[in-house]
Design a protein that fits this description.
Distance between the termini: 35 Å
Number of strands: 17
Number of domains: 2
CATH architecture of the largest domain: 3-Layer(aba) Sandwich
Structural class: alpha/beta
Strand order of the largest sheet: 2-6-4-5-7
Order of helices and strands: EEHEEEHEHEHEHEEEEHEEHHEHEHEHH
Mean pLDDT: 89
Oligomer: single chain
Low-confidence stretches: none
Helix content: 25-40%
CATH topology of the largest domain: Rossmann fold
């Protein structure tokens, strides 16, 4: 469509669908038309100069109208709306989210017996996101073109790219409809771009079960285990992807070293259905933990777990013991504005059971004997790596009052963001030092510890994920993570 001010793709009316797969196929067509239009227009502008009219294309959207107050199965935590009304969400990368979209639309149709309408929204697609997957196009920096980019194309708008839906601060869209999904298309696109930057792997490789760690030792062991898994076809894993999107499909395959060292090295042990395992080395600190989970959340994983090292706070603990978090003391501060510290972060029974069962399987200890090497309790997360150097009367008293058994710098952040984003979460830490009891993390001690414990710890994490993978989605995605008026999409 063209007028004196704008050029856009041809206008199309919304179409009603009762077949979820057909609905998603139409989303893909609309998105492809929009991004191809912007890609061609941008290529022409670079080669021929500033266009005479502004060039714009729009995200596709899903709309749903429910008129009945029929009560939905109260056991369901997602896949339905709370009350009659019109619900809508913009969509990006429907190719990447195809299975997710088909699943969510199917549940809505099943629970409410209504069709969905697929069409073009009124939200422009920023040029940067439209050409992100095109290796032949890249958006130049300011000043490299002979015209100002934002005068001709839409660019990312951070004033409308936010977490107001998941934070419970937005109940209606600008047109009066209610949010259908937890993230808008622009918010998803922003995170997809950040994921590629931080991890040096394409978002298409991320799996539904995500492990976080804070040491490179776990990465090395993960590659070793992944190669062993690829050598055993009965396990169902199909590929292993490392930095730079280097991939192998056999245990003896050769990985090409990445030209880029990412901030958060990430590796993917893939399955054909996406239910493999992704490992992210987030490094140290709550800021990194928040950054990683902020962006991975848009992929709607089924679970994420923290496997890291911690300071043991009880004299009865030994180096190498495990700490299974059932509560969190949040002194990380990075989420205080999004999730107040008075909000409890509950332990999720399904995750706790999967982790405890995995520890028992790997260690061959059960019941009372398991208590010799694993303790369940509160994990404290702090933003000061050298907290031990402060006046001990303050921190130690608070840790004792909270009944904390371990302290680290990431776990509560990951759990809190899991709660905020409705992603099932859990924590299993390994005691690497006991600073309150004179056992500091010194080089010689650390080396011996890493050699003996990393493999077993990671094996437990992988086994826990495999337990979770065997559960129905409705069991993993607990109602404890859902608020009063939730989005229908998971």
């Amino acid at each position: 469509m063209q007028d004196d001010l704008f050029q856009t793709p041809p206008a199309t009316a919304h179409i009603s669908f009762t077949d979820p797969a057909a609905a998603v196929a139409h989303l893909e067509r609309l998105y492809a038309d929009a991004t191809q239009f912007l890609g061609k227009a941008f290529a022409a502008a670079v080669s021929q100069g500033k266009p005479k009219a502004r060039l714009r294309a729009y995200y596709p959207e899903i709309r749903l109208t429910v008129t009945s107050h029929d009560k939905i199965d109260s056991r369901l935590s997602f896949g339905h709306v709370a009350h009659p009304g019109t619900y809508a969400t913009t969509v990006t990368r429907p190719d990447l989210f195809r299975n997710y979209l088909i699943q969510q639309i199917s549940l809505l149709m099943e629970n409410h017996s209504v069709p969905v309408q697929i069409g073009v929204s009124d939200t422009p697609i920023p040029l940067h996101f439209a050409v992100a997957g095109n290796p032949d196009l890249s958006v130049p920096h300011q000043g490299e073109l002979d015209f100002t980019l934002r005068d001709v194309f839409d660019v990312p708008d951070l004033s409308t790219t936010n977490d107001d839906i998941v934070n419970g601060q937005r109940s209606h869209n600008a047109d009066g409809s209610q949010p259908l999904a937890p993230f808008t298309a622009q918010r998803v696109d922003y995170s997809l771009s950040r994921l590629s930057h931080y991890t040096a792997t394409d978002p298409t490789h991320f799996q539904n079960y995500v492990l976080f760690t804070n040491y490179q030792f776990y990465v090395d062991e993960f590659e070793f285990m992944a190669r062993a898994a690829l050598s055993n076809p009965t396990l169902g894993y199909t590929a292993f992807v490392a930095g730079g999107n280097s991939a192998i499909t056999t245990g003896d395959g050769v990985l090409t070293p990445s030209a880029k060292t990412p901030q958060m090295p990430t590796y993917h042990l893939k399955r054909a259905d996406g239910n493999g395992i992704t490992l992210v080395n987030i490094g140290v600190g709550p800021s990194n933990a928040k950054t990683a989970t902020d962006h991975i959340a848009v992929l709607r994983p089924h679970a994420w777990l923290m496997l890291g090292h911690c300071a043991g706070l009880r004299n009865s603990q030994s180096l190498g013991d495990f700490c299974l978090a059932h509560a969190y003391l949040r002194e990380d501060h990075v989420l205080d504005d999004d999730l107040p510290v008075w909000v409890p972060i509950p332990a999720l029974a399904e995750i706790q059971i999967a982790l405890q069962d995995a520890v028992a399987e790997v260690t061959q200890l059960e019941g009372y004997e398991l208590k010799r090497i694993m303790r369940t309790g509160t994990v404290a997360t702090i933003d000061n790596r050298n907290w031990e150097l402060r006046d001990q009367s303050g921190p130690v008293r608070r840790l004792s009052q909270s009944r904390a058994i371990a302290l680290d710098m990431e776990s509560a952040t990951i759990a809190a963001n899991g709660f905020r984003f409705r992603v099932p979460y859990g924590t299993l830490l390994c005691v690497s030092d006991k600073p309150l009891h004179g056992e500091l993390k010194l080089p010689g001690m650390a080396s011996d510890f890493y050699k003996t414990q990393v493999s077993r710890h990671l094996q437990i994490g992988i086994r826990a994920m495999e337990h979770l993978r065997e559960m129905p989605l409705g069991q993993i995605h607990s109602r404890k993570l859902r608020s009063f008026d939730e989005t229908a999409f998971l």
